[in-house]
What does this fold into?
Amino acid sequence: MTDQSYNFAYLDEQTKRMIRRAILKAVAVPGYQVPFASREMPMPYGWGTGGVQVTAACLMPEDVLKVIDQGADDTTNAVSIRKFFQRTAGVATTEATSEATIIQTRHRIPEQALTAGQILVYQVPIPEPLRFLEPRETETRKMHSLEEYGLMHVKLYEDIARHGSIATAYAYPVKVEGRYVMDPSPIPKFDNPKLSDSPALQLFGAGREQRIYAVPPFTRVVSLDFDDHPFDPSKAPHDCDLCGASESYLDEVITDDSGGRMFVCSDTDFCRTRREAGHAGRLGEAQFSSKKIANSFEGICPPTGDEA
Amino acid sequence: MTATLSGGFRDAPTQSARAFRAILDALSRPGTIQTLSGPVTPPAPLSQAAGTLLLTLADATTPLHLAGDLDTPAVRDWLTFHSGAPLVGAGDAAFAVGTWDALLPLSRFFIGTSEYPDRAATLIVEMQDLSPNGARLSGPGIDGHAFLSLPEVTAFAANHRLSPLGFDCFLTAGDRLAGLPRSTRVEAA
It folds into this structure.
């Protein structure tokens, strides 16, 4: 039920118009960070205020919203943002990737391929890919305008000189349509290939840093690399211990203090769908969720399987 | 007077949200034609699509330019009452609306700066008709290529060469809407 004390989707209409104009300019200049007048939201910075504002500006009453945090539908951040829009916009929500029309995400792209008509909204902490190399906004802005990205290649080169390979594992920089270098938000580099040529529209919102940027559908997104050190979207060399998937991104869960561990899909909807379809991994007989297992080791909820 | 006060959104939060999604779809998928059928009924000669788009996006912070025959007292009063957008000359406009001939020469419109390309103007081109044939489009938002009936090719091709600078366009005819961002490559079919 909608909370009638608030305007539809929480934000006032003037704010939504401002955000909508920023989104349209972001779509017109793929990868460029459009400044916008970010509002205070009823949640702290770092909890997805940018993503929430972009979602609020895009939501219509017919939408079906999915919210994920590190791939999971059932973590605090995801649950509270989903409830926020249930209350203020009255939209339907889902955990199934295929049923959602808008998916707000923190740090993952769903395993299941997105489709045309879906919008993926990323929560972004630091939108500027050059920020840790050059702290001054005046300078990074100039570097983007001059397409001067040598510094980023030096950083990747220094990774190779020091570690033998590019050590950046998340927030791996990409170039959009051969023009702007963009921070894809802290998604694992495993997800980077999914940014390119996606049928879905991808919008990025950074609340504290007041930036919105976009990757339209069917847009070329290339992860930066070198000819002799090509980009490698690596993942843990295991199968999911619950559903047996070999192609999904995995979380490592420590299960005891003598070296025991398990690997589970970070995308809970993907893992559950596979288990319901009869797939099983090494520990897959017990049909409880990966989060329940993780929680049981922290004493949050009692263990329910023999493995615990 | 009544004509000025009526014809806006009846339930702005939800109706403008639906309109925005059609607008967003149009701009992020150039070559597709969206329908903006809603309660908005602007005074002639402003089309329903252009009127809906302006009420969805324009407000007191967005200078608006009415080009040529669109600059009538009825249209001025209606837009001022419903959006509050200040009416300005072409060079200062964030939004400009008119027929293709009335918008020319396009060099009057702001194309942004290399540090802030987002400040470029958005043009709303009123057309007789919109159809998915004519000029060949490719680029972001387009799977392969698409076709769209554009008033001309040269001007849009030149605008794309300025990218990431350049204006962005919406084409409107009746309640139909298509988007053409500066990122789209335009060639004669």
Observations:
- Chain B has six helices and nine strands.
- Residues 112 and 120 of chain B are 4 Å apart (CA to CA).
